[in-house]
Amino acid sequence: MAVVLSFYGLSMIALIVLVIGSWFVWDRRYKKQPDQTIPEGYIRTKEVFIDPTTKKKMVVYFHPETGDRIYKEGAVQKVIKK
Predict the structure, then answer these.
(1) Whole-number Cα distances in Å, 69 to 17, 29, 43, 75
(2) What is the pLDDT of residue 11?
(3) Chain centroid to CA 64: how far?
């Protein structure tokens, strides 16, 4: 009985640690560059999207050698109609 309880107890603790750890890693996906500067070698792509959590316009930068991507908050451009 004690072996079964210790097995399930350790499994639950491992699951909780895994969930909390993955949350911190997953949350960094848009926070690679907190100072919003673009490192050398990155080029701006035509990809623009609205971040569903912050509702801000995000612009994608791509490094062709490494394949790494950076998401930077972009300026909202208004179209003036005449």
Answers:
(1) 28, 10, 9, 18
(2) 84
(3) 19
